[in-house]
Amino acid sequence: MAQMTMDAAGGGKAERLTTADGTPLKQALGRVELRTKTRAFLLVAPLLAFLGVTFLFPIAQMLFRSVHDPIVSEVLPNTLVAIEDWSAEDGLPPEEAYAALAKDLAVARENRFTGDLGRVATRLNYEKSGIRSAVTRTARSVERMEPPFKQAMIDADPDWGKLETWATIQRLGNEYNAVQYLASVDLRYNEFGDIVAQPEERQIYGTLFVRTLWMSVLVTVLALLLGFPISYLLATQPTRVSNLLMILVLLPFWTSLLVRTTSWIVLLQSEGVLNDILVWIGIVGDENRIQLIYNQTGTVIAMTQILLPFMVLPLFSVMKTISPSHMRAAQSLGAPRFQAFWKVYAPQTLPGVGAGSLLVFILAIGYYITPALVGGQDGQMISNFIAYHMQSSLNWGLAAALGGILLAGVLALYWLYNKLVGVERLTLG
Q1: What are phi and psi of 293, to 5 degrees?
Q2: Is 21 contained in some domain?
Q3: 329: Cβ contacts below 8 Å, ≥ 6 apart
Q4: Is 144 inside a domain boundary?
Q5: CB 404 within 8 A of CB 63
Q6: Distance CA 179, CA 23 (A)
Q7: 72 near 174, Cβ under 8 Å?
Q8: Does the bond joining 70 to the residue before it have cis omega, within 30 degrees of 0?
Q9: Is the residue at 148 inside a domain?
């Protein structure tokens, strides 16, 4: 129970509220608020820990791996010391550098059970094709080499007489570098340290990023065009009918994604159901069947159908809260039905439009299974190449850099959405 005390100060009187034990009321309320916040934090602490371990830590590890490149510095330490002050303008490295490389290769070959020789050869080969064979071939004969090592190694493989080979070793000798990010945007360092474009036959990632962005935007727009009338129908029907239709919308979630994707292969292939129907009704000839599979068209169609419920649900939840009296009031004031819909109803659905579009776009930009199965060569997205480098080529640094750029792009678009529309308007109802 709060009590009031009177304090004399300079001939005047000041009132101070205290609790029954004499503690100032403001201090007591602060303690209560602190206990409440502490209790709330402890309740959500397991969730925060789970998110940190399963979400934030993997992202941080991915970003770290994209710039952390210690293989060359671990396997070729003597070589890096010998070429520390060397530059391509000086011509080929001195004899000491070749002797140091011979020593490092001999040590790596002796430690064959650690796989150091294969690892460094593979890493160097990612940057310059052909170095892997030069490293392995030279390592097999290095024990038989005698000074001068420079000529002996060039005789063993001509790549040791090229400036680009030594510049690559020197550049990758830095444990932390941005080489993988340059490769992710089709750029590289030349032997003089200048950033130049990759050879034309190796310029693939820039096109993939553009294709991924374009297809994700297209899928989002198509999902919005199809999902808006479906959501409007659900929101304006009686509850019993609306619930039945909602079951049909949710039905795809009860079917495996792999099954749904392979079903589209049956529907879209040249001898599939859709082409048979088009031939039967005479739209196309039997010899001119439309190629709807293993290209961008098939990927967009399948992804739109699969992601459509993620657009319908936010739109429906928002539309359900809009009172029908708004439209009736606009029509009673003389507005045509379409004008009343466009001026009164549609603006109230923008939070749902924003939520659905953002959800579908983020899911589409990282989609993997559907493009892999129905996309073919032209329908592949950047996520498929990230998976390739993780599972097949084992170039985890490049996969991490591609993932980092994709993450940065999504965050940039989210920031742009916040600036133009406002995240506070995003709602699921």
Answers
A1: -125, 155
A2: no
A3: 344
A4: yes
A5: yes
A6: 63
A7: no
A8: no
A9: yes
pLDDT recorded at residue 6: 46
In terms of residue numbers, what domain contains 159?
71-175
Length of the chain, in residues: 429
Q: What is the token pair recorded at 103?
A: 């020593």
Same domain, residue pair 418 and 353: yes
Q: Are 274 and 292 in contact (CB under 8 A)?
A: yes
- Tokens 């550049």, located at residue: 171
Angle at 383 between CA 380 and CA 389, to 5 degrees: 100
Q: Are residues 335 and 397 in the same domain?
A: yes
If asked whether residues 316 and 364 sit together in one domain, one would say yes
Q: What pTM value is reported for the model? A: 0.83
To the nearest whole percent, how much of the chain has pLDDT over 90? 45
Orientation of helix 149-156 relative to helix 95-110, angle to 10°: 60
75: buried, middle or exposed (CB in 10 Å: 19+, 13-18, 0-12)?
buried
Cα separation, 58 vs 61, whole angstroms: 5
Q: What are phi and psi of 94, to 5 degrees?
A: -75, 175
For 129-174, write each residue's pLDDT tens digit.
889 999 999 999 988 888 889 999 999 999 999 999 999 999 999 9
Which pLDDT value is given to residue 424? 65
The whole-number average pLDDT for the span 77-85 is 94
How far apart (Å, rounded) are the C-alpha atoms in residues 70 and 26? 57
When pLDDT is cut at 50, 70 and 90, the band that residue 7 belongs to is very low
The tens digit of pLDDT for each residue in 42-66 reads: 999 999 999 999 989 999 999 999 9
The CATH number of the domain holding residue 400 is 1.10.3720.10
Query: How many structural domains compose the chain?
Result: 3
